[in-house]
Amino acid sequence: MKKFLIPVGIVLVLGIYLYTKAVGSYNQFVQTEEQVNGQWAEVETQYQRRADLIPNLVNTVKGYAEFEQETLTGVVEARAKATSMTIDPTNLTPEKLQQFQQAQDQLSGALSRLLVTVEKYPDLKANQNFLELQAQLEGTENRIAVARRNFNESVVGYNSLIRTFPNNLFAGWYGFETKGTFQASEGAENAPTVQF
């Protein structure tokens, strides 16, 4: 009878260990994924802040009748495209993040063209409303960079967690998949050319 109890005890201890490891892993995956989702919400918040500043910036610039209408139209259209692009935080694939980033990059490019064009209008550059909006926009760009960095760090932690052994076994079992990170835009490795 005693010989029978030893294998049963071993199986029972092994079963309890596997059960607690599986439950613990699942809970850890959920907590880490929620951190990623929270960081993604912060990224979206900062992009939304930028999108909310743009109409005020455009309206301030519109007051100058000679201002290039094509530039303003480009900013408005890029803003509309960027704000229409949303990603469900449960589906943060590299492809979807790249599409989101491309829309945001187009908006950044349109804003850059607007700010370069403003250089031709000294009265506009001296306008207090414009200067305040420009400062807020610069601050928002910094916030976006910080939010993106924090998001990438949380995704790297999450991806590392679900890809290490034996967590990868439980992650596959529970359906947890790796998430994408923000990548540098194409051509970002090249320094901009400045000519005087």
Polypeptide structure, described:
The chain is mostly helical and 196 residues long. It contains six helices and no strands. α1 crosses α6.
Structure described in brief:
77% of the residues lie in helices and 0% in strands. It is an all-alpha fold and 196 residues long.
Q: What are the defining features of this structure?
A:
6 helices; 196 residues; mainly alpha; 77% helix
End-to-end separation: 94 Å
Spans of 5+ residues with little confidence (pLDDT < 50)? 191-196
What's the mean pLDDT score? 86
How much helix is in the residues?
Answer: over 70%
Q: Please, how many helices?
A: 6
Helices and strands, in N-to-C order?
HHHHHH
Q: How many strands, which pairing sense, and closed or not: the largest β-sheet? A: none
Strand content: under 5%
